[in-house]
Design brief:
Rossmann fold
């Protein structure tokens, strides 16, 4: 396992990009891993297990275009979830053909369908909440297989979680993928529980 030093005084990741072609254990939940991807100038597909995660970042309750606002800039992002009808396909196609950096949020099950609209080797892929791949496999096998069958088609990939899968349960298709763990040093607050 490789360690990635994190210099942070506020508990957030301050990186230009996430590490590439790896499984990334960020150790801390809510530290802004997805936000790193949304703020940078790389084209990204961000695959997540639930529509709620997309709604949280896009503010939309249906598929389509919205803005992600940060201190640096407002960035258009496309949320792809729910029914994939002709209007959504048309909107997605227009977004992909527009100028500027592309950020596409989608649920795991939409990854294979998305490949019909993008050139995957031009996009980086973030598989967020990586631990959900194992947890949901028994009832979402087709969706999970869609991610695992296609992740190597992208320019790079990062399977990210703060609660990673134990090595003995790691999917065999990820056996050769390096593992990187965030090293927060002494910057994390120690939690003490008193009864």
């Amino acid at each position: 396992m490789e360690l990635l030093p994190i210099n942070s005084s506020d508990g957030f990741l301050h990186l230009r990009d996430l590490p590439h072609n790896c499984i990334f254990n960020k150790i801390v939940t809510g530290c802004g891993g997805t936000t790193v991807v949304l703020r940078n100038s790389e084209d990204y597909v961000i695959a997540v297990p639930t529509t709620e995660l997309i709604i949280n970042k896009t503010g939309r309750t249906d598929a389509g275009l919205s803005l992600f606002k940060s201190e640096e800039r407002s960035q258009p992002i496309f949320g792809l979830f729910g029914k994939f009808n002709s209007q959504v396909a048309s909107d997605l196609n227009s977004y992909v053909e527009s100028s500027g950096t592309k950020k596409i949020f989608c649920t795991y099950d939409k990854v294979p369908r998305l490949l019909d609209f993008i050139t995957p080797h031009s996009f980086r892929l973030l598989i967020d909440e990586y631990h959900c791949l194992l947890k949901a496999y028994s009832y979402r096998q087709k969706a999970i297989d869609g991610v695992l069958d296609n992740f190597r088609k992208f320019k790079s990939f990062c399977f990210m979680s703060a609660t990673p899968i134990l090595p003995s349960f790691k999917p065999s298709c990820l056996a050769d993928v390096k593992e990187i763990q965030a090293d927060w040093g002494n910057s994390l607050d120690k939690l003490t529980v008193e009864l």
